[in-house]
Amino acid sequence: MSLDQQTVTEALKQVIDPNTGKDFVAGRSIRNLSVQGGEVRFDVELGYPAKSQHDPIRALLSEAVAKLPGVERVAVTVSSKVVAHAVQQGVKLLPGVRNIIAVASGKGGVGKSTTAVNLALALSAEGARVGLLDADIYGPSQPQMLGIGDQRPVSEDGKTMTPLQAFGLQAMSIGFLIDPDTPMVWRGPMATQALNQMLKDTAWDDLDYLVIDMPPGTGDIQLTLSQSVPVTGAVIVTTPQDIALLDARKGVKMFEKVGVPILGVVENMSIHICSKCGHEEHIFGQGGGEKMCADFKVPFLGALPLDIQIRTEADSGAPTVVADPDGRIASIYKQIARKVAVRIAERSKDMTHKFPNIVFKSA
Ligand SMILES: Nc1ncnc2c1ncn2[C@@H]1O[C@H](COP(=O)(O)OP(=O)(O)OP(=O)(O)O)[C@@H](O)[C@H]1O
């Protein structure tokens, strides 16, 4: 059998992308394939950020091609390119932002903000350009978790605010704009307006993903936000106990009602491992998140332990993904981030510019 593009393509079809579960040809990631004599060259363009995976993926693909008879040299480049994906019908994309991920919870205090910041940092660690908008007007905690609570955003053009920078993230929070010691009383329309303004009047700079830490709950404010903000998909955070899961179910339903796809569910405070004796205990119950995902047919993204490290690092202004980037907990957040990014990449591309089909039916 002579060495040609088809033979190489067939060999590449046998290699499964460990992140998507699909082969690289079906995933349309292979570009510029050329075969000249015994030299094979091609580029791989992933639709999700995966800096940590570029080398292993290059090795997997090179190995598969190098085995073919007649191959003397294989040259592969691997890169990632995140594009904009579809949002709710009738809602316009935001300038400077390709994809918005809403992190929500049905109930307060389940660890939504901690998950949002670590998810944003994990996406950034994989090479994406990431922003974090703290829309949790009732308890804005991102300024403290990012260690920039004493900073204030400025406006260079008198029209838009420049987001603050922390650990490579572009960040904006209502907490930067109000006195943290004087809590505001937000009524529905006021809160929605403030959030829409923060979203639209911030000069987001070329973001692959904007992670929004949503206000907890499934009331009017959350519903209005999920209708008006151009969301690519939502991540629901829950703890494993019944009451939190019940509220998380409401969250899933709310997003589905307004046409926002659920990227998946994160179970937080899933298991407690005693730091003294190593005993494992399911303080808030076991398996609830996975069961809920099976019921609703949405992906289970992963489970974080109830671990004092997560709290102390977030409280001290350096969340776990940056405080202990190679640790066990950071690797769980990174796995979750990869699943989220892959789910987004699998969604259809931005269609907001397309005119909807109008079908005339005779009576
Ligand atoms: N897996 C975890 N292990 C230990 N502590 C955690 C974990 N997740 C979150 N925490 C801690 O629990 C507290 C509440 O977390 P967080 O603020 O993220 O919750 P939330 O759902 O955003 O709350 P709210 O509804 O008030 O916005 C914080 O002190 C945080 O550090």
Automatic annotation (TrEMBL):
Family membership noted in the UniProt record: In the N-terminal section; belongs to the MIP18 family. Belongs to the Mrp/NBP35 ATP-binding proteins family.
Keyword Transferase attributed: no
Protein name from the UniProt record: Iron-sulfur cluster carrier protein
Cellular compartments per GO CC: cytosol
Coiled-coil intervals, chain numbering: none
Entry keywords, A to Z: ATP-binding, Hydrolase, Iron, Iron-sulfur, Metal-binding, Nucleotide-binding
Oligomer status and interactors: Homodimer.
Binding residues annotated for ATP, in chain numbering: G106, K107, G108, G109, V110, G111, K112, S113
Molecular-function annotations in GO: 4 iron, 4 sulfur cluster binding; ATP binding; ATP hydrolysis activity; ATP-dependent FeS chaperone activity; metal ion binding
Described purpose of this protein according to its UniProt entry: Binds and transfers iron-sulfur (Fe-S) clusters to target apoproteins. Can hydrolyze ATP.
InterPro entries in alphabetical order: FSCA_dom_sf (IPR034904), MIP18-like (IPR002744), Mrp-like_CS (IPR000808), Mrp/NBP35_ATP-bd (IPR019591), NUBPL-like (IPR044304), P-loop_NTPase (IPR027417), YlxH/NBP35 (IPR033756)
Pfam families assigned: FeS_assembly_P (PF01883), ParA (PF10609)
Gene Ontology biological process terms, A to Z: iron-sulfur cluster assembly
Residue ranges of every copy of the MIP18 family-like domain listed in the record: 6-77
